[in-house]
# Entry
Amino acid sequence: NRKSAHYTRQKPFEGSDRKIRGSILKALVSERSMFEKDIITAISGEQKRTRKLLTALVEEGFLIRENDAYRIS
# Structure
């Protein structure tokens, strides 16, 4: 609600970390388990940025990394 004192407009979704994180999760939902290089290819992502986001998703408990592959927790 824009009348709220705490209202802030969200950043555009396209190209954001939020968009990439969503793409990673969507890819893993369909494939169940993927290697990092396959995730980067599937989402057409930047390698360095995608690695950073994969690490964050693991630290936040969304993903599990096993034998160099990622899967949803």
